[in-house]
Amino acid sequence: MKEIRYQSIGIIHSDIKSLDNAPIQAVYSSDRKGWIELHPAYKEGLMDIEGFSHIILIYHFHLCRGVALRYKPFLDDRPHGVFAIRSPLRPNPVGLSVVKLDSVIDSIIHISGVDMIDGTPLLDIKPFIPQFDNRDGAKIGWLKDKI
Question: Distance (Å, rounded) from C-alpha 77 to C-alpha 120?
């Protein structure tokens, strides 16, 4: 298989310093503040982002080691396949979080709802658009009756 390479576009900063202190999901840390230090080469890409209330962050789980194809998540007492859970122990350690966009000052993006560890490499930013990102009638599999 051909190797795929990505470059970080910035660094996510937060008060979370270790895996032990990280919230399970961003939705459980809506008040936690953080900021993104975007690399200067990408500053122009921020044009018009302030019109969005929320953004999607795609990032690298830089502290996670190993892969667990089956894992017991925090909301259940039995294991599930890695593609049916949101564990960071993945074949490709890529994370995704929807956060609130508080402000943009130069190349610094202030955000709320942070669940990333300080120093997390940022791969991409996309605007959260409810009309595109929500799906009516979506099923949640084994999570039904758990959340």
Answer: 29
Structural domain harbouring 95: 10-130+137-143
In a domain, 20, yes or no: yes
**56-68: pLDDT as tens digits:** 999 999 988 889 9
Output the pTM of the full model: 0.91
Picking from 145, 129, 128, 133, the residue whose alpha carbon sits closest to that of residue 56 is: 128
Identify the pLDDT of residue 127: 99
| Secondary structure of residue 38 in the 3-state scheme | strand
Within the chain, how many helices (H) and strands (E) appear? 1, 8
Specify the DSSP element, H or E, that contains 131: helix 130-133
- Residue 82 in domain: yes
Pair of tokens at residue 19: 């895996």
Q: What is the distance between the alpha carbons of residues 55 and 44, in angstroms, rounded to a whole number?
A: 17
| Domains contained in the chain, number | 1
Domain of 111, CATH number, reads 2.40.30.70
